[in-house]
Amino acid sequence: MALIERLNGREAVVGILGLGYVGLPLMLRFADVGYRVLGFDVDPAKVDALNAGRSYIEHITSETIARALQQGFRATADFTEASACDALILCVPTPLSRHREPDLSYVIDTTESLLPHLRAGQILSLESTTWPGTTDEELRPRIESVGLRVGEDVFLVFSPEREDPGNPSFNTRSIPKILGGVTPACREAGMALYGQVIDEVVAVSSTRAAEMTKLLENIHRAVNIGLVNELKVVCDRMGIDIHEVIRAAATKPFGFTPYYPGPGLGGHCIPIDPFYLTWKAREYGLNTRFIELAGEVNTSMPQWVVSKVVDALNARGKAVKGARILVLGLAYKKNVDDRRESPSMVLMELLQAKGADISYSDPHVPRFLPMRKHDFDLESVPLTPATLAATDCVLLATDHDRFDYDLIKAHAPLIVDTRGRYRDTAAHIVRA
After folding, report:
1. pLDDT at res. 365
2. Residue 320 has what pLDDT?
3. Which of 65, 162, 174, 370 counts the most CB atoms within 10 A of its CB?
């Protein structure tokens, strides 16, 4: 097959659609091994920044972008250039709607934009997390509506992203890649595409199996986090430190995997992906009660944390209305700038709705940039003895390593710790 020969020879042009936390690392990997890469994004600011050699993601340096440009990378918002690509990889968002139902608009709109520019001899890969059947039921009919036969003229695969921003132990190359093809020929082309840039490609029998694999990975985490979040509430009522219990249980060398509670779920996968399966399961007359229960527990965590803040202020004779509350950490996990689905935003909105005066500090997010759901006209506050002493409550939402925890403890009049960072029982530290 000519396409496979071009992929194996690294002569193919690879198009990456969506240049965010998933697409940008993937672009860098393909560029590093010698492919010419076109990056597509509908955001002209991203396109301009990349073509100028500037990164907008903290853990991806501008130097790596500049090197990719020297290796032949170019960003564009012009979808007509897709016809020049041998491979097209979709890395666009798949959020939930207001009613917690799958929103495939980014995937569908991107596919529709590509249709006039598809040609025989291309491979199309969807990396966006979605419900089992999406590749078969949504992408294949659209591609074949323009006269291209999937498995013969063009090749269609699903290969879910497994990026973990800021994780120093794993990168795009070293994380095994799941791959499912619509047909055996599609799978063979997908193996050629990813086999050049990923150390291990794990082929499964179909796109549906690949789609379900991604959901299982994140449902596994969501359910276990829901369990420890529920136990956190129980332990709090019993006067037990859940973090101490988890640390002790983790000493068992078999049969136990530690999961840690927090103020809610964040990131682009775990808060969202389980609901893709619960939605699809209803089509088959099934109720995924276990998954939905974990979702209820996890989504209730911000409200529970706010109640702890209210109680802690009240115990010190202070109403939440008018209280100066400094939220530590906007990112959904420590040591990154990724704010997608971060519970910090929900906490800020809930406290603001109760009349609190909200500020934040995050060394990874110097200014709050508007998001699809959230917008605060705020900049990160430097942590000094004066700024800490001027607060009524410091709410530790994301435990970045760059925070000076001794400084915070010494000068904040009240700390509500949602991450178990403080192990002592100081009178002004409240666990949540």
Report:
1. 94
2. 97
3. 65
Alpha-carbon distance values, 271 to 105, 265, 292, 296 (Å): 18, 6, 11, 11
Is residue 358 one of the residues assigned to a domain?
Answer: yes
The answer as to whether 239 is a domain residue is no
Mean pLDDT for 162-171 is 84
d(CA 327, CA 378): 12
Please tell me the distance from the alpha carbon of residue 196 to that of residue 410, in angstroms, as a whole number: 53
76 and 17 both lie in a single domain: yes
- Domain edge (last residue) among 166, 185, 205: 205
Instruction: pLDDT band for 273, please (50, 70, 90 cuts).
Output: confident
Q: Is the dihedral of CA 340, 342, 348, 351 positive or negative?
A: positive
Count of CB atoms situated within 10 Å of the CB of 224 = 15
pLDDT band at 270 (very low <50, low <70, confident <90, very high): confident
Whether residue 422 is predicted with pLDDT greater than 90 in this model: the reply is yes
Domain of residue 170, CATH code = 3.40.50.720
Q: What is the DSSP string of 392-416?
A: SEEEE-S--TTS-HHHHHHH-S-EE
Pairing of strands 74-76, 36-40: parallel
Assess if residue 286 is contained within a domain: yes
How many secondary structure helices (H) and strands (E) does the chain include?
A: 15, 13
What is the pTM for the complete model shown?
0.91
Decide if 247 is inside a domain: no
Query: How many domains does the chain divide into?
Result: 2
DSSP label at residue 272: T
Confidence of residue 9 (pLDDT cuts 50, 70, 90): very high
pLDDT over 90 at 377, yes or no? no
**Structural domain for 130, as ranges:** 2-205
Cα-to-chain-centroid distance, residue 432 = 24
Residues 194 and 287 in one domain: no
Q: Which residue in the block uniquely carries the two structure tokens 């209803």? A: 282
Residues annotated as catalytic are 269
